Hints:
Layout lengths: L12 E4 L8 E8 L4 E4 L4 E6 L9 E6 L2 E2 L3 E3 L10 E6 L2 E6 L11
Antiparallel strand pairs: 1-2, 1-7, 2-3, 3-6, 4-5, 8-9
Amino acid sequence: MTNVKLHVKKGDKVLVLSGKDKGKEGTILTAMPKKGKVVVEGINKVKRHTKPNQKAPQGGILTKEMPLHASKVMLICPACSKATRVAHKEVNGKSVRACKKCGEVIDQTK
């Protein structure tokens, strides 16, 4: 798969739209634009049986989050706290993300 422009970034709060965790909210831990996937905190957890190694000297059954497709999550606007689609606005010559519902800019200008 080629590089995909994602509508969400690391640190965004999102709502899961489909799958076993439908309706749950979480924060994006990792965004993978090359695969078009994101890892959301506390969502899509799986158990992995691991042998003892340097990282996990105890070994055993570990629970971790797996990636899910970016199209299955929807951004939650920090201003209005609603799940929304992303609009693009130009502020000070830069393209920023904005909420489609309230119009508030999502990206913080630095």
